């Protein structure tokens, strides 16, 4: 129920933004997509970098140099931007959602008719996330198929760890001990 209210509030805010700003739906959707892509990559790393600076005192220094001055010289590695670590979180989010869709549909097929109802909300959320990350996926795969292997390896490793933790925690299953103590239970009440 909370997810439905959350999505209704997000849709309401988006409709108000569209009306007040005079932006078209296509421009709004592209903006939403790039906010999600930035939020799972660059903004996430900025938060970690800020936490490292505040908590551990580790400061990141940037050196601004002229790119045209030394393309093949001694300092050529200064001009190379190592962006593979920025690709890992959004790729992991994509893999986790794809795994969730496959696992949810296979569970619903094996469990019968009563399991399809709760599945639709979960599928909606997973497909919503994948639709937001579609430009990233399109750029990642691209025409030349030059996705760095380390991105795929780390993303699959992190997605596997998150999936195994999710299965271990299993927040959607009712625990009789918890439900009797605080009067609440999971989705399957």
UniProtKB/TrEMBL annotation:
GO terms for biological process: cell wall organization; cellulose biosynthetic process. It comes from the Eukaryota. Keywords: Cell wall biogenesis/degradation, Glycosyltransferase, Membrane, Signal, Transferase, Transmembrane, Transmembrane helix. InterPro entries: Cellulose_synth. GO terms for molecular function: cellulose synthase (UDP-forming) activity. Residues 1-17 form the signal peptide. GO terms for cellular component: endomembrane system; membrane. The chain crosses the membrane at residues 34-52, 86-109, 115-137, 149-169. It is found in: Endomembrane system. This is Cellulose synthase A catalytic subunit 1. It comes from Trifolium medium. The lineage of its organism: Eukaryota, Viridiplantae, Streptophyta, Embryophyta, Tracheophyta.
């Amino acid at each position: 129920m909370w997810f439905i209210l959350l999505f209704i509030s997000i849709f309401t805010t988006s409709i108000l933004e569209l009306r007040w700003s005079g932006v078209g739906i296509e421009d709004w959707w592209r903006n939403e997509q790039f906010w999600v892509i930035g939020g799972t990559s660059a903004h996430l790393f900025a938060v970690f970098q800020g936490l490292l600076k505040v908590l551990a005192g580790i400061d990141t220094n940037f050196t601004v140099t002229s790119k045209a001055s030394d393309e093949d010289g001694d300092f050529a590695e200064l001009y190379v931007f190592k962006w593979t670590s920025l690709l890992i979180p959004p790729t992991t989010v994509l893999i986790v959602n794809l795994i969730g869709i496959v696992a949810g549909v296979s569970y619903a097929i094996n469990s019968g008719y009563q399991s399809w109802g709760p599945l639709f909300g979960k599928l909606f959320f997973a497909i919503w996330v994948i639709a937001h990350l579609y430009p990233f996926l399109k750029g990642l795969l691209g025409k030349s198929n030059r996705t760095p292997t380390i991105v795929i390896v780390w993303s699959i490793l992190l997605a596997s760890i998150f999936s195994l933790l999710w299965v271990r925690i299993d927040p959607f299953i009712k625990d009789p001990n918890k439900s009797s103590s605080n009067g609440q239970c999971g989705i399957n009440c």
